[in-house]
Amino acid sequence: MKIILVGASGTIGRAVGAELERRHDVVRVGRSGGDFRVDITDSDSIRRLYAEVGEFDALVSTVGKVHFGPLERFTPEQFDVGLRDKLMGQVNLVMLGLASIRAGGSFTLTSGLLNDDPIREGASAAMVNGALEGFVHGAAVELSRGLRINLVSPTVIEEALPVYAPFFPGVKAVPAREAALGYVKSVEGVQTGRVYRIGWSRDT
Amino acid sequence: MKIILVGASGTIGRAVGAELERRHDVVRVGRSGGDFRVDITDSDSIRRLYAEVGEFDALVSTVGKVHFGPLERFTPEQFDVGLRDKLMGQVNLVMLGLASIRAGGSFTLTSGLLNDDPIREGASAAMVNGALEGFVHGAAVELSRGLRINLVSPTVIEEALPVYAPFFPGVKAVPAREAALGYVKSVEGVQTGRVYRIGWSRDT
């Protein structure tokens, strides 16, 4: 398969790339490095990426920024960061990729646990992750040509603990190579409209 | 309690108002009618509403527009309708209401079942409903002064079937007065960070 990996140089992206390249042709994409570049907040940049790469079988996104901060001081502009980047950036990778993905192909996006397992300063991340779950559920029932879409929702990544540990007291981390399994399951499996929770489970 | 009801003239809003006014002082707010008017997509309009109404004990929102349409033809502008109106409109009712809600007060917002029980043409509604769930979970753990926040997620409303029935094949509707129970539970109860699913349950 020809797999476009957006966020290839990130903590999760590197692990996903290392696993997928054993069996597939991985096209590495980043904001500032890789085989191709993209700014996911810019539709024209996404269009250029797909024009350059041509037909493909799978799009994997391991990117997306959100702002973290105390709820009572959140501004509309800070909520917008997550809506424009992690949410609509990934959604637009799907929407604009529909024209050049081959039949039977798949989209795999990334969220995180905060919509179900909230933390201090994480209201925007919780909002965006919930939105991604909703979108993936909603899109999966409408995709044609055997196309599939899934979401990987990892817990904190071990390699990122130096930065994130203070925000996640008592949360067990997983190594990036474990999170990578969710992407492999989505790309090489047959399911659609699923949320692969890595290292945590929803409390319902 | 002094309760601000945004969307008071809508199908759900009327049922919620009828139930809450038996025991409370209900301030009815709408886009074009009621005791006060508000455009929830306009932060200045929301600020004016709160300045006019003064201190209050509960904010109930039963409003929010999203665009429905086939996934493959969705434009960024159509996704924006739901993000600006049903999502950030309701979120801004919370954020801007923090300054004048009394200690122990509550916010109650409205989503719907589509993020977990998707239908054709409902990708944006699914996205927005999921985002609202995430936000309510995230906000609940950070609110101070005993403030609470919950979400009511009703199935299709019986009174709205003439418009919505074609979109929801096989979905059992509930009368608006049954959906109203969720709002009563949120306003008069003690829970926070909860999603009250009315007439349906999540399949997990």
Describe this structure in words.
2 copies of one chain form a homodimer. Helix content of chain A is 38%, strand content 20%. Chain A contains 6 helices and 7 strands. In chain A, helix 2 runs parallel beside helix 3 (76-97). Chain A has a 7-stranded parallel sheet, with helices on both faces. Chain A starts with a strand and ends in a 6-residue tail after the last strand. Chains A and B meet through helix 3 and helix 4 of A and helix 3 and helix 4 of B.
Which features would summarize this protein structure in a list?
20% strand; alpha/beta; 7 strands; 204 residues; homodimer
Secondary structure blueprint with pairings:
2 copies of one chain form a homodimer.
Chain A: E1 2-6, H1 11-20, E2 25-30, E3 36-37, H2 43-53, E4 56-61, H3 76-97, E5 101-110, H4 123-140, E6 148-154, H5 161-164, H6 176-188, E7 195-198
Parallel strand pairs in A: 1-2, 1-4, 2-3, 4-5, 5-6, 6-7
Short description:
Chain A has 204 residues and is α/β, with parallel strands linked by helices.
Structural class of chain A: alpha/beta
Amino- and carboxy-terminal Cα gap of chain A: 37 Å
Strand content of chain A: 15-25%
- Percent in helix of chain A: 25-40%
What does the radius of gyration of chain A come to?
A: 16 Å
Overall, the morphology of chain A is globular
